[in-house]
Amino acid sequence: MDELLDIRNELHRPLIKFRAEMITLSKDIETASWDENFPSDVQDTFQAKVEPALLEIEDKLKSTEFREFWNRKIVDKHGI
Q1: Does 75 score more than 60 pLDDT?
Q2: Pick from 53, 52, 62, 78: which is nearest to 7 by CA?
């Protein structure tokens, strides 16, 4: 359980950043959804702000600590 809490703590900051960028995304898009520029505005903002935050979370999830945690859980569950 302590390991799971450690991982949760490790992801805390990247998740806050991601959530903040999602809020910013919703506020930054000035065009209405029916405007022809809406899809490109969303795409541009997503790529500039949200995607980097997601990649940071992905990097944390691919970290050695996280993989070791899940590998141990799989081994324990299946008795491998």
Answers
A1: no
A2: 62
Element (H, E) at 1: none
Q: What b/e string do you get for 62-74 counting C-beta neighbours within 10 Å, with b at 16 or more?
A: eeeebeeeeeeee
User: Cα separations (Å) of 46 from 8, 23, 24, 28?
Assistant: 25, 11, 10, 10
pLDDT in tens, 14-44: 999 999 999 888 887 766 677 888 888 889 8
Q: How many domains does the chain have?
A: 1
Per the structure, the complete domain to which residue 11 belongs is given by 2-78
